[in-house]
TrEMBL record, chain A:
Coiled-coil ranges per UniProt: none
Membrane topology, from the record: Multi-pass membrane protein
Family: Belongs to the binding-protein-dependent transport system permease family.
Protein name from the UniProt record: Glycerol-3-phosphate ABC transporter permease
Annotated source species: Jeotgalibacillus alimentarius
GO CC, any one term: plasma membrane
UniProtKB/TrEMBL annotation, chain C:
Pfam families recorded: SBP_bac_8
Residue ranges that the Swiss-Prot or TrEMBL entry lists as coiled coil: none
Signal sequence, start to end: 1-22
CDD domains: PBP2_UgpB
Localization in the cell: Cell envelope
Principal location: other
Similarity-based family: Belongs to the bacterial solute-binding protein 1 family.
Lineage: Bacteria, Bacillati, Bacillota, Bacilli, Bacillales
GO cellular component term of the entry, any: cell envelope
SUPFAM superfamilies in the record: Periplasmic binding protein-like II
Name this protein carries in UniProt: Glycerol-3-phosphate ABC transporter substrate-binding protein
Keywords for the protein's UniProt record, in alphabetical order: Signal, Transport
InterPro entries from the UniProt entry: Bact_solute-bd_prot1, SBP
Length: 307, 260, 447
């Protein structure tokens, strides 16, 4: 009896020691990242939360404490409502379409053909394009007078569209350009995911005489789900934070129809010098993305199939 | 067929940039698709106008440094998340993920002040170190490491193989493909940064190519788009080459993974 | 525990490897920086927003100055767009990183004065008894407040009407006569509108609206455009502003107006490709347009309403500011550069290279300018329009620190016109939003 008890406590001690050692190792591996996050992300974020409660001078120094006023002003402002709506629409336009397109391209490029490498490079090429460079090109494509799109429409006898100038189409146009810019990256990740799928699964499916569409539904998509989950999470977050192409293509216009929140933050902080209001928007954006991502993890990770 | 069409659609904008880079004067704004002559004049002006070679070199250096830093930090962190069990691990993981949601524009000014007080302005440290930690990369590698059977790790622990040996000897080789992908991603993202390098540098000696691109465009007078596009081509050429080369590496890695 | 040790040393090594790499890199840059110290000259750092060909011209000007004397070395540094440059200045103002001299766009004038980190050039003018009458009065007016010259005008431009002479001829209009009034403009636009070609276009950019209002003698904000005290209310929604909006609205409804968006190059593409036959453009862009358009280009004055008296134009562009917290020597160097840059010779070269106005009218007598005007007679129109401008509060330009925001509001209102908004309502809303911005700004400054 006593010896057993003795052993038990010894076990616990070993256990505790191991737990501590594990914790220390874990932290050691994480320390460099945590340190940099602390300095370059958490500290500024905390500062942003703090500043959102103030009016600041043009250099961003808080001068008047206003409490929730910045937030209240935002909720009452129609500009902010338009901006929130534009952000939501932009996410809806770009994320699902972008993922479907990238998945389709990845499946296409996963065939075993001669010269398939060339196509893979073509599909992933947009990843090598900077937002600045891509935007310049798309600006020309969208141009109502000389742009290619309207000339194609003209050739088809359809009257031209004011792509970036009509509040009805502007957000959609920017979304198309964005999908193009993001496809290369999503494609590459998804292709990697596809290649990791065990070929023997397809082999047995072939022997069983399963149809192509069934293979896609029953093998490819489930096996690809961790990668899809990952790509969705990252695309969502990126979509919420899109900035460059908005700045270069529309500057948030026409009639604020493309004034997504990050652009609005940028304008308030760097052009209008309303750091308080910009900070309040940043806090709201952070909370929104956090909620969306948590939801995505809760719903998504259950459906994800790990090997 | 579908392959060819979609391939062409995807690369068309890039080809178009190529074509514009040979156009002279008003050709661009009159909406030509094909240049009248293929002259290299725009490339010559692009190199004359900004110190493009210096910029390219700096971009290369900065991108490689960031890539190396991110790979090291991310793989270490991902390893900790998958193979060490300790209290609060999940919590810290969510903390990591939450950093992805912080809008970068909101952190820029405080970060600038931090870098300034560290004395890192105009240095490669200021250009690179703030980017070394990356939640996205950690997340990507974590997803990959998770596919390594836990039993393998437990067996190695029993066999007395150190965590580090296991990390370098087993985990990294298995995750080679993903690491290559991440490396390419890191490199390209770093290569394409604009606002931050502009903020933290004050002389041409350590500026990067994206600033050079902006330097070629004008507002109030007509931009010389031929020259700008020549610049664009010079800027995207290295990344496209990298992608092409990386593609080969990727495929190699993938076949190896399949053989195992 | 042993494993842990190995792990941590390896980690330390890894980290050391990556830090030493960066440190090395840092050292190499330190070695390449600050080349001016070898020559014993005082370094004067000059931040600017001139890109493309403008930067080439600016660098020539700076090089000439550096070669012209032994004491100072001006070092020009490109800092992005005007907005980006100003943001950056804002973060470093008052620190060691602050430049000695800075180029700031015209709407940043009030912001700079309020910033408290600048040295008015007036002090140098007084000290030296410098004769500012050599400068174009209409340009210096903009940058002086209450008789104090705050900054040195540098690259200055005004809007002009640019038209396609070939299209004028084809439409049976006199290609030598540009429309001077709104009804002439409307008639011409109606005649020019045919098939794919529209008559007229204005860029959706606040500057053009401000100019069209000022051309009729209208003010942008109260307190005499903010020059007789702090402006508290926007007045651009008055009669003059409504005239402009009605013009756009009418022409848009008649189908003679072309919406060219917010992008300068989109507008130019529309003009050069024949999508619109007349546009408003910056005087600085005229030469490039003449060079690149595949047709004859005409240049005319800004049109005004039929019954309005022509007041002239507000100066646009940017000026040079001197920082306050720098060494006296650097200030002196900046001042020397400003004087050099405003000399007739330097201004003549600058005008020819860039298309910006010479702030020193004597430059127009220089041979290179005479030669260029012979080749491009249209350029003279831009200068004449400025010379004929009456100096008053309207053409002096508004002085508010929330200018960038006010511009965004006006642009928004312009865009809503194309969606069928009522001109007066659109203007009123923009004015109201501007008022709110002015209010918040006043609250910040505690007055």
């Amino acid at each position: 009896m006593t010896t057993m008890q003795h052993e038990f406590t010894a076990d616990r001690q070993v256990e505790r020691k191991r737990a501590w050692s594990n914790w220390a190792t874990g932290m050691l591996f994480l320390l460099p990242s945590l340190l940099l996050f602390g300095v370059f992300l958490f500290y500024p974020m905390v500062r942003t939360v703090y500043l959102s409660l103030f009016l600041t001078d043009s250099q961003g120094v808080p001068i008047v404490f206003v409490g929730w006023e910045n937030f209240l002003n935002l909720f009452q402002s129609t500009s902010f409502q338009i901006s929130a709506k534009a952000t939501a629409l932009f996410v809806l336009y770009t994320v699902p379409a972008g993922i479907v397109l990238a998945t389709a391209l990845a499946i296409l490029a996963n065939q075993k053909l001669r010269g398939i490498g060339l196509f893979r490079t073509m599909f992933s090429a947009t990843m090598g394009m900077s937002v600045a460079a891509s935007s310049v090109i798309w600006m020309f494509l969208f141009n109502p007078s000389i742009g290619l799109f309207n000339r194609i429409l003209a050739a088809l006898n359809i009257s031209g569209v004011q792509w970036l100038l009509d509040p009805q189409y502007a957000l959609l146009s920017v979304s198309i350009a964005t999908i193009w810019m993001n496809t290369g990256f999503a494609f590459l990740i998804l292709l990697g995911g596809l290649q990791n799928i065990d070929q023997s699964l397809y082999e047995s499916a072939r022997i069983a005489g399963v149809s192509e569409s069934c293979k896609l539904r029953k093998i490819t998509l489930p096996m690809l789900s961790p990668t899809l989950f990952f790509v969705t999470t990252v695309s969502l977050i990126n979509a919420f934070q899109t900035f460059g192409q908005i700045d270069l293509l529309t500057k948030g216009g026409p009639m604020e129809s493309t004034n997504v929140i990050v652009y609005s933050i940028y304008k308030d902080a760097f052009i209008n010098y309303n750091v308080g209001s910009a900070s309040a928007q940043a806090v709201l954006l952070f909370v929104t993305v956090l909620v969306v991502t948590v939801l995505q993890f809760k719903i998504g990770e259950r459906k994800v199939h790990y090997q | 067929m579908t392959l060819t069409v979609s391939g062409l659609v995807m690369v068309f904008p890039i080809l178009y940039a190529f074509l514009i880079s040979f156009m002279q004067g008003g050709e661009v704004l009159q909406g030509s698709l094909w240049p009248e002559t293929f002259s290299l004049a725009n490339y010559v002006s692009a190199f004359e106008r900004v110190p493009l070679l210096t910029y390219l070199w700096n971009s290369l250096l900065v991108s490689v440094l960031i890539m190396a830093g991110q790979l090291i930090l991310c793989s270490l962190a991902a390893f900790a998340f998958v193979f060490t069990e300790f209290k609060g691990r999940e919590w810290i993981f969510y903390l990591f993920i939450s950093t992805m949601m912080i809008p970068w524009e909101a952190t820029m000014v405080p970060n600038f002040q931090t870098v300034q007080s560290l004395g890192w302005l105009n240095s490669y440290a200021g250009l690179t170190i703030p980017f070394f930690a990356m939640a996205f990369g950690t997340f990507l590698l974590r997803q990959q490491f998770k596919t390594i059977p836990k039993e393998l790790y437990e067996a190695s622990q029993i066999a007395g193989i150190s965590k580090l040996r296991f990390f370098t000897g087993v985990v990294l080789p298995v995750a080679k493909t993903t690491i290559t992908t991440l490396a390419i991603y890191s490199f390209l993202t770093a290569w394409n940064m604009y606002l931050w390098p502009l903020l933290v540098t004050n002389n041409e000696a350590n500026r990067t190519v994206q600033i050079g691109l902006k330097q070629m465009q004008t507002q109030e007078i007509a931009s010389d788009w031929g020259v700008v596009m020549a610049g664009v081509v010079m800027v995207i050429l290295p990344t496209l080459i990298l992608l092409f080369a990386g593609q080969k590496r990727l495929q190699e890695g993938l076949t190896q993974g399949a053989l195992k | 525990m042993k494993k842990l040790w190995i792990g941590s040393t390896a980690m330390a090594l890894l980290l050391a490897a990556c830090t030493s790499e960066t440190e090395e890199a840092v050292q190499t840059t330190d070695a390449t920086a600050a080349p001016a110290e070898d020559t014993g000259k005082t370094e004067v750092v000059f931040w600017h927003a001139m890109s493309g060909e403008l930067e080439t011209a600016l660098n020539t000007l700076v090089d000439d100055f550096n070669a012209s004397q032994e004491e100072y070395e001006v070092e020009p540094v490109f800092q992005g767009t005007y907005e980006e440059a100003l943001t950056k200045l804002n973060t470093v103002a008052g620190t060691d990183e602050s430049p000695a001299m800075m180029q700031v766009f015209e709407v940043g004038t009030k912001f700079m004065i309020d910033s408290g980190h600048i040295q008015p050039v007036q002090d140098f003018i007084d000290e030296e008894g410098f004769d500012t009458s050599i400068w174009e009065e209409n340009i210096t007016n903009y940058y002086s407040v209450d008789g104090v010259q705050y900054s040195m005008p540098f690259n200055s431009s005004t809007p002009v009407l640019i038209y396609n002479k070939d299209a004028f001829e084809a439409a049976g209009l006199d290609p030598e006569k540009s429309p001077m009034t709104y009804s002439e403009l409307k008639e011409a636009a109606a005649a020019l509108t045919e098939g794919e070609q529209k008559g007229f276009s204005i860029l959706n950019y606040g500057w053009f609206f401000e100019e069209l209002v000022a051309a009729q003698g209208g003010l942008f904000v109260d307190a005499e455009n903010g020059r007789e005290g702090q402006a508290t209310e926007a007045v651009f929604n008055g009669e003059e502003g409504l005239n402009v909006f009605n013009l756009i609205k009418d022409m848009h409804d008649e189908g003679t107006f072309y919406n060219s968006g917010q992008n300068w190059d989109d507008m130019r593409a529309a003009f050069q490709s024949g999508a619109t036959a007349m546009i408003l453009d910056s005087s600085a862009g005229v030469k490039g347009m003449i060079d690149n358009a595949p047709f004859e280009v005409g240049v005319g004055y800004l049109p005004v309403p039929d019954d309005a008296e022509r007041n002239g134009v507000i100066i646009g562009g940017a000026s040079l500011w001197m920082a306050d917290d720098i060494e006296a020597e650097q200030k002196q160097g900046a001042w020397e550069f400003m004087k050099y840059a405003s000399s007739a010779e330097a201004q003549a070269q600058w005008h020819v290279d860039t298309g910006y106005f010479a702030i020193n009218p004597a430059a127009y007598e220089e041979q290179i300018v005479v030669d260029q005007w012979a080749e491009y007679p249209q350029l003279k129109v831009t200068v004449d329009q400025l010379k004929e401008t009456q100096a008053n509060a309207a053409t002096g330009g508004a002085l508010i620190s929330v200018f960038p925001e006010a511009r965004q509001r006006v642009v928004n209102a312009m865009e809503s016109l194309y969606q069928g908004a009522d001109p007066q309502e659109a203007l009123d809303q923009a004015a109201e939003e501007t008022n709110r911005a002015l209010e918040v700004d006043a609250a910040k400054n505690g007055n």
